[in-house]
Specification:
By secondary structure, the chain is α/β, with parallel strands linked by helices. The protein has helices at about 1-15, 20-25, 35-55, 65-95, 110-115, 120-130, 135-140, 150-165, 270-275, 280, 285-290, 300-330, 340-345, 345-350, 360-375, 380-390, 405-410, 415-435, 440-445, 465-470, and strands at about 95-100, 170-175, 185, 190-195, 205-210, 215-220, 220-225, 230, 235-245, 255-265, 350-355, 390, 405, 450, 460. The strands form four sheets. Strands 1, 2, 5, 6, 9, 10, 11 and 12 form an eight-stranded mixed beta sheet that branches. Strands 13-15-14 form a three-stranded antiparallel beta sheet. Strands 3-4 form a two-stranded antiparallel ribbon. A hairpin with a 2-residue loop joins strand 7 and strand 8 (about 230). Helix 17 (about 405-410) crosses helix 18 (about 415-435).
Length: about 475
């Protein structure tokens, strides 16, 4: 590391001393390392190939943005083989997988990080030097995907990097926001927030996987027929996955980050269009795509809170379908097994980590799938949930924990509200068993807040608490600490 920083400082000194002489700058000796000549030649060959055939440009008309895409695709070529072999190894060994669910991922710029992790920085620097290009100028062309708000998103990104470096079979799941947090500009000494459209020029590091598109249901109502609950009259949004490779440092492991993009199940209504109603012709599409449009919509009004709730459910619902598909693929004769036999190994093959409260709807969603669709008993499903989910708490400040009005949940996710009520019932039964006649304790630990605020008669909060505060965790001797 010390040797690297000495080289970096030397490069900066030389660059500063000859900044005004471009010809002299291009004659500088590369100080990022001494790669093998063959590796630099290979990078040059692949770089020129992608510049010509992927970007459709030559050196006379290409911009730094074109050079960035050519270099990124060159690195991607080196990455994809390891990526495929890693996933093949996981499938062949049927390993237990870690699934990290987060509404934020602050991955930073991928090009520089990938070159370092693949130990290709020296070869790429040498190759671009021979072509008369500056690697730092090219790397600066990459937009920084602001798919996070700060520490929580950066922690998620660091976890993915570490899991790959340590060789853990892991997947990151989130939302592919069309716009990041925001771009900052200073106008008349005031900060101005502008849209951060990081996908304007495309993203060379992602691969669309439309074959794994998943329909997501929302709204509607529930109906019980012959003792079985059905969720009917729903509206459907389509979740399309985009995969990005996450390479470990100096290792052959390349894990996957899968981000979901929302699309309408009805892309265009021709009948509206033909009658001159051009706005309604694309209304369904716009409403659906708003789910993955922007990170953290303003939730100071009902529509903003509703969109935030839809974002969180959209991500966890699509992710759980994907996880269960992958789990079933690793079970021999899955089609002939009873549901109890099929899912008995689920906690031994699947670990789901919830990054703060945002993905906590994954708990009632997995219960809904196991009970309503897979027809397991409540006790079987709850045992699977307790063995599968884990939770990362980022704060205990009440104002930072999410709280949802019951009326909103009933409107957007009616079946999930019923499941949450039932989870809360059993949760409070366990609390009463350990704290008899302590009504304050029940009130404090209830998922449903009955006091309300203003017009919100009931609120849902701390949805993760029944998993964290299971019966084994209750200790009457630490009553004041609960």
């Amino acid at each position: 590391l010390q040797h690297y920083f000495i080289q970096l400082n030397l490069r900066k000194v030389v660059a500063m001393s000859s900044a005004d002489d471009d010809a002299q700058k291009r004659k500088m000796i590369s100080l990022s390392g001494l790669p093998e000549i063959e590796s630099a030649k290979e990078v040059i060959s692949d770089f020129n190939r992608h510049l010509h055939f992927t970007c459709g440009k030559d050196r006379n008309v290409a911009t730094n943005k074109d050079f960035y895409f050519a270099l990124s695709n060159t690195i991607m070529d080196k990455l994809v083989g390891k990526w495929i072999r890693t996933q093949q190894g996981y499938a062949k060994q049927n390993v237990k997988r870690v699934y990290y669910l987060s509404l934020e991922f602050m991955m930073g710029r991928t090009l520089s990080n990938t070159m370092i992790n693949l130990m290709l920085e020296g070869a790429c620097d040498e190759a671009l030097y021979q072509l008369g290009l500056d690697i730092e100028d090219i790397a600066s062309e990459e937009p920084d995907a602001g798919l996070g708000n700060g520490g929580l998103g950066r922690l998620a990104a660091c976890f993915l990097d570490s899991l790959a470096t340590l060789g853990y079979p892991a997947y990151g799941y989130g939302i592919r926001y069309e716009y990041g947090l925001f771009k900052q500009a200073i106008v008349n000494c005031n900060q101005i927030e502008r849209p951060d459209c990081w996908l304007t020029h495309g993203n060379p590091w992602e691969k669309a996987r439309p074959e794994y598109t998943i329909p997501i249901k929302m709204y509607g109502r529930t109906m019980t027929i012959n003792g079985k609950v059905h969720w009917i009259d729903t509206k459907t949004v389509v979740a399309i996955p985009y995969d990005s490779p996450i390479p470990g440092y100096d290792t052959n492991t390349v894990n996957t980050m899968r981000l979901w993009s929302a699309k309408s199940s009805k892309d265009f209504d021709l009948s509206y269009f033909n009658h001159g109603n051009y706005i309604d012709a694309v209304l369904d599409r716009n409403v659906a795509e708003n789910i993955s449009r922007v990170l953290y919509p303003n939730d100071n009004f009902f529509e903003g809170k509703e969109l935030r709730l839809k974002q969180e459910y959209f991500m966890v619902a699509a992710t759980l379908v994907d996880i269960m598909r992958r789990y079933k693929a690793g079970i021999p004769n899955a089609n002939v097994l009873s549901k109890s036999e099929l899912y008995k190994e689920f906690p031994n093959k699947v670990a789901i980590q919830l990054n703060d409260t945002h993905p906590s709807l994954a708990i009632p969603e997995l219960m809904r799938v196991l009970v309503d669709e897979e027809e397991l008993s409540w006790d079987e499903a709850w045992k699977i949930c307790k063995g599968t989910f884990a939770y990362t708490n980022h704060t205990i400040l009440p104002e930072a924990l999410e709280r949802w009005p019951v009326t909103m949940l009933e409107y957007v996710l009616p079946r999930h509200l019923e499941i949450i009520y039932l989870i809360n019932y059993y949760h409070l039964e366990a609390v009463r068993a350990h704290f008899p006649d302590n009504h304050d304790k029940c009130r404090q630990m209830s998922i449903v807040e009955e006091e309300g605020r203003g017009n919100e008669d009931f609120l849902i909060e701390n949805l993760h608490s029944p998993l964290v505060n299971t019966i084994e965790n209750f200790n009457p001797s630490t009553d004041n600490c609960m």
